[in-house]
Amino acid sequence: MSANLHDVIVVGGGPAGATVAALLAKSGADVLLLERECFPRFHIGESLLPCDLPIFERLGLKPLEAGFLYKAGAEFMDEAIGGRAVYEFAFALPGTPDHAYQVERALFDAWLLERSRALGAKVHQGERVVEVEIPEESGKDRVVVRALRDGKGANGKPLSNEYHARYLIDATGQDALLGRLMRTTVVIDEFGLGAAFTHWVDLSPEVDEELCVTAKGVIKVLCVDDGWCWAIPLGKRKISIGLVSRKRGIDGSWLMRTIEASPFLRRVTHGAKMVRAPRLLVSWSFYNRRQNGKRWLCIGDAACFIDPVFSTGVSLGMVSAAHAADVLVDALKHGKEGDPDLMNGHVEYMHHAYNTYATLVYNWYHTSLLHSMFFCNTPPENLKRGLTSLLAGDVWRNDNEFQKILMESKKRRFVFEQGRA
């Protein structure tokens, strides 16, 4: 094969991009991964779901040995009413994996990216893709990608490279490279509208023991006025805390006031140090109306990102990456990667998950269903098990009564239409 023609170019080196690149390279494909930043770099989205466990096995990775924190489930709290509900993954429906991990993304993403390199992917960091030619528009039988590199040449102009591939995977996260270029992304206003977040270090040893050992690393989700807060223990006396609000205009002071008003968060952060001033994100939930075409596919957040209240971002990204890799490996082997309908089944597969979680999130913000379930003294066991399986990322099964009730209700459903949002 020509050195200028790769089997697959993956744009974006986050968890979805690194996973698909690793699995494709493991199969023998010639994979080039282009990442605009240089890892490690700060990122949020630190709480994983059990649906990732089979993918770690396929990648030959052991998160505990790498120093990431065991996560038994999630705890929901409403301090205003004294409400507390723990949902451990071990209580889910049979077959749902019983744990996940909390990860510091700077370390986790670099770990995954290095694994893709070890399995044979060519990894270029510090290269920002600025132009893409796809066969549907160019008439060519290959994808052409142009990228700018860090630094400048002798003439003072930015350094650039051009690459060709049989297939392109957009894993650029919320940058949604192809969605933005094609203007096919639709913002979702019904969920959280802004977030402020940061890390705290030097927690007291007693608090760290409580969060990481006694509570088995569960994520804490706190109900607050007009939104919610996350508290994610990361181990080694570090915690990630963030505020998501339904109100516009969020700034860092909102997070600080929320911490001060919460007995739990005030106690956890007492005597600890804030690593940096709170960072902000706004209007992040969106759906890409067009996720695949001739010789290209969007995966992970580049296809859809749903409010982070149930920690689905990284995990759905890795699941979509693994599923897409399996389809593409076979297509490359038989020369069928040019079929414009190649990934239709994959998009349908992920569409099911996006609809389920969008509906769950919609009910979190706009109905009393989940609040009643979480803080009910004796929720029906079959429904609680079903909800726990959804919280674990186990959405592709037909025996979940809670999921059926949720998705069969026209009043409660929040569904993306295929081809449009």
Report on this structure.
It is a single chain. This protein is an alpha+beta fold and 421 residues long. 33% of the residues lie in helices and 27% in strands. It has two domains: 5-59 and 102-187 and 285-408, 3-Layer(bba) Sandwich (FAD/NAD(P)-binding domain), CATH 3.50.50; 194-282, D-Amino Acid Oxidase, Chain A, domain 2 (2-Layer Sandwich). The strands form four sheets. Strands 1, 2, 7, 8, 9, 10, 19 and 20 form an eight-stranded mixed beta sheet that branches. Strands 4, 5, 12, 13, 14, 15, 16 and 17 form an eight-stranded mixed beta sheet that branches. Helix 1 packs parallel to helix 3 (105-118) and helix 1 (15-26) packs parallel to helix 9. The radius of gyration is 21 Å and the shape is globular.
Q: How many independent structural domains?
A: 2
Relative helix content = 25-40%
Percentage of residues in strands:
25-35%
CATH homologous superfamily placement of the largest domain: FAD/NAD(P)-binding domain
Radius of gyration: 21 Å
Short key terms for the protein model shown above:
421 residues; D-Amino Acid Oxidase, Chain A, domain 2; 2 domains; 21 strands; eight-stranded mixed β-sheet; alpha+beta; FAD/NAD(P)-binding domain
